[in-house]
Design a protein that fits this description.
This protein is α/β, with parallel strands linked by helices. It is built from 19 helices and 13 strands. The protein has a domain at 7-92 and 114-175 and 292-339: Rossmann fold, CATH 3.40.50. The protein has helices at residues 20-29, 45-62, 74-77, 92-105, 117-141, 154-164, 183-191, 226-239, 245-254, 262-268, 291-310, 314-320, 330-339, 385-407, 410-419, 421-424, 429-442, 457-461, 475-478, and strands at residues 7-12, 36-41, 66-71, 83-86, 146-149, 170-173, 202-209, 212-220, 223-224, 257-258, 345-350, 363-371, 374-376. It is globular.
Length: 498
Amino acid sequence: MKGKKRSKLVYIGAGSFRFSIPLFMNILEAEILHPMELWLVDIDLQSLKLVSNIFKYGVLIHGKDIRIHHTTNRRKALPSADYIIISISVGMQESEWYDIHVPLKFGIPQNTGDTVGPGGIFRGIRTIPIFNDIIKDIKELCPQGIVFNYTNPQGTIILSSHQIAPQIQAIGLCHEFFYIGSKEFIRFLTWCGINIKPKDNIKIIHGGLNHFAWITEFTLENENIYPKIQEKAFEAYRSGKFGRRFNFYLLHQHGLLNYVEDRHVAEFMPHYYNYFNYKQRPFGITRLRDVQRLNFYRHLVYSIYKMANRNVNRWLYKFLIRPWTGGEKALRMIESKEQNLPRHHVSNIINKNIISFLPENCVVEVPAWFINNEIRAPKITSFPNSLKELLKIHAKNQQLVVDAARSGNPDLLLKALLADPMCQFIEDEDKIEALMWNMLFYEKKWLNNFSESIPSYRELKNMKYHVKREELRTHDRAIKEKYKPDGHLKKKSWPHVP
């Protein structure tokens, strides 16, 4: 439209091998934001240049009015930004290696380690200070800008950013709702005797915490279809023919369906996934986060980016990099806001009496939409007591992690670790404290806040429980447990291990 104001979008972490290209395809499709000024920001100049060139050529072949700039200096990009999308990884796979394998030495397996457990807590304490610096710059340079965050752990990051700059709207986004719209789930509904037509009005209300959220209402054309789903839950779990066996088992146990991928859910409920059974893959849950595979995949993607930069093929670009509404939902949310459409989106926001039994100083995952440029959400109820208690434990721990990250105080960090159910499972506070010191040592280059407290390698080796460098150098060595939990704890494990 002639004379239309050029919107400004800043993407921080644009060198991301997972998010950058799908997000760019969303940007191409979101014509309501065109013409656009798009700023790409990353601390890795090499990957930034690769992505920037791909973006520029994509704009050219699709004929979109998008001006693209790239910089390693976010302050140069941020002034007057309307929207800021953030997807950063502090330490990438190098730090994730320690997130996963140091806790395993103490008998704490993690199949993901990005939200809760020792890995999730350490990802939080190394990311929160960096994220807070970004938020402070946004507060100064574009306070009207709305932040959409894809960085984990969502809960502690959004909570911390709200506490240092409550006037900035920072919304955490996650793509875990995809399964509910999948062909596999539609087959399950058909098996339950629920026939869904393309134009049927399906209403879903959901709530909880990021990676631990539940569908509380499930209606089709105003009919409550939950009883039919609950009736078939145990059969779906036993057969496994609709995937996500763990989710259906929990539906049978608690009466609500968890829509998150089972590997994430398991880390919130360690009696189902723990040292005594993780190798047997209960419910088919992933054993451990495969950091080596992720690192290989990242290098492979960057190799493809380099090839794309060297051999520009117009037909291939037009086929592979095209306008797309799928994938992540940040641009769909922005479109909803721009058009003033009350479309619900899965959002991680501050709990303002949305889920009444959880503290207001926590971040909840709920359906939300924009009203008069402000994010809103309905009240979420109907949780059974069994789930309320689990949600409370993890919600309360968000503040402990934030306090530890911002202060650099190991006493507060230990408090957060001891309150975490994965750490509590092994019932040994001395080992958890030793685990903390070992993780602080191995991740010290990303933990400036804690620098004065981090032990030297000599001090580490003098501790009763310590992990040597050589025990982490290779995959085969890293996956060997060192300080095994007491055998009597098997009785807490599901299924009970003889």
